[in-house]
Amino acid sequence: MNHSGDIVKKLTERGYRLTPQRLMTIAAIEHSDGHISAEEIYAQVVSKYPHVNISTVYRTLELLKQLGLVTDTDFGEGRVRYHPVGKGHHHHLVCQECGATVDLDETALTPLKDVLLREYGFSADLRHLAIFGRCGKCGS
After folding, report:
1. Domain for residue 82, yes or no?
2. Total count of domains within the chain
3. Of 1, 7, 19, 73, which residue is most buried, by most CB within 10 angstroms?
């Protein structure tokens, strides 16, 4: 499945212009093996399009986030990382000692979501989270 084609198609359907900067930002996200920061995206885009400004990358990421095409996650490293929604929802366990991250299937948090709704009347948006703690190697 060509996810960047999906994002491009959705932007076109909604009347957004497909500038070279937007297309390169989308390509950087889609071709990333995991989660990618705005700075990493900017480095890729500026290597091909030297006159681009990092604020253009940030605006594109904000648009994609508002349209529900990407999610952002704070891994506790001082910057947010982006992930295309088309690549699935999952969460991350992040070790605060060694920095290891483990993907956690979103169904693991279904009981929490159910309790929050039932007990508190709160509909939680649990699409993409980082949960901090210590991994098995580093101890508890």
Report:
1. no
2. 2
3. 7
